[in-house]
């Protein structure tokens, strides 16, 4: 075995170890920083509910750019609905009607129940349907934005999902001075995912408050 081969192999091994060490230290640093922000949010006063977005930014004091109705989007799988500009209204209405919180607002339990029902329905209608652990966590993370950024509030979520617009004067429901941290967001996402039972209710319905949803689709 030539000396040049040994030198090249050693250089590659050391480079790989160095890269792995830097990556690990970076991840640890980000987690420590995020945990610090989370602790800071806990011990400091919240921002005023109507002054979350900084001045000079879109949405400051609830002033958003003029609403433009969507024409093309990705609300539903293109195989099921070729026109990607159309939201899946029946699923949205079912989700909005399952809230068990005050005024019919959504809670983590509601999202867990609805996600479990949708997964069970998908398995029943599509034998090839499957979700890896990563996909399950990704889906729960996506749905958790309804609880974190929107606070689960039906009056905010309804126009957002049905009309794909923000309500007039809307502000994010995250009022912590350092905003939404990964620690806080992932806590909500795991709460939703770990509460999911992938089974169909006997009546295929939801057990929420049943608050009526008035829709106005642009």
UniProtKB/TrEMBL annotation:
<dbReference type="Pfam" id="PF01328">
    <property type="entry name" value="Peroxidase_2"/>
</dbReference>
<dbReference type="GO" id="GO:0046872">
    <property type="term" value="F:metal ion binding"/>
</dbReference>
<keyword id="KW-0560">Oxidoreductase</keyword>
<dbReference type="InterPro" id="IPR036851">
    <property type="entry name" value="Chloroperoxidase-like_sf"/>
</dbReference>
<keyword id="KW-0575">Peroxidase</keyword>
<keyword id="KW-0408">Iron</keyword>
<keyword id="KW-0479">Metal-binding</keyword>
<feature type="domain" description="Heme haloperoxidase family profile">
    <location>
        <begin position="1"/>
        <end position="187"/>
    </location>
</feature>
<protein>
    <recommendedName>
        <fullName>Heme haloperoxidase family profile domain-containing protein</fullName>
    </recommendedName>
</protein>
<keyword id="KW-0349">Heme</keyword>
<dbReference type="InterPro" id="IPR000028">
    <property type="entry name" value="Chloroperoxidase"/>
</dbReference>
<dbReference type="GO" id="GO:0004601">
    <property type="term" value="F:peroxidase activity"/>
</dbReference>
<comment type="similarity">
    <text>Belongs to the chloroperoxidase family.</text>
</comment>
């Amino acid at each position: 075995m030539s000396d040049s081969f040994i030198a090249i192999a050693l250089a590659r091994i050391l480079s790989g170890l160095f890269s792995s060490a830097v990556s690990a230290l970076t991840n640890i640093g980000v987690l420590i920083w995020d945990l610090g922000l989370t602790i800071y949010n806990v011990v400091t006063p919240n921002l005023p509910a109507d002054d979350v977005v900084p001045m000079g930014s879109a949405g400051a004091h609830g002033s958003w750019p003029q609403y433009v109705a969507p024409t093309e989007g990705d609300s539903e799988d293109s195989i099921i609905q070729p026109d990607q500009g159309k939201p899946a209204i029946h699923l949205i209405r079912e989700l909005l009607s399952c809230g068990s919180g005050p005024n019919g607002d959504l809670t983590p339990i509601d999202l867990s129940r609805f996600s479990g029902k949708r997964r069970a329905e998908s398995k029943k209608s599509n034998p090839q349907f499957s979700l890896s652990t990563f996909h399950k966590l990704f889906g729960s993370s996506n749905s958790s934005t309804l609880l974190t950024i929107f606070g689960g509030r039906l009056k905010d979520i309804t126009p957002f999902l049905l009309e794909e617009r923000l309500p007039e004067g809307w502000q994010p429901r995250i009022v912590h001075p350092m905003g939404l941290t990964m620690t806080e967001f992932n806590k909500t996402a795991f709460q939703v995912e770990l509460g999911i039972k992938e089974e169909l209710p006997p009546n295929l319905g939801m057990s929420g408050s049943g608050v009526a949803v008035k829709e106005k689709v642009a």
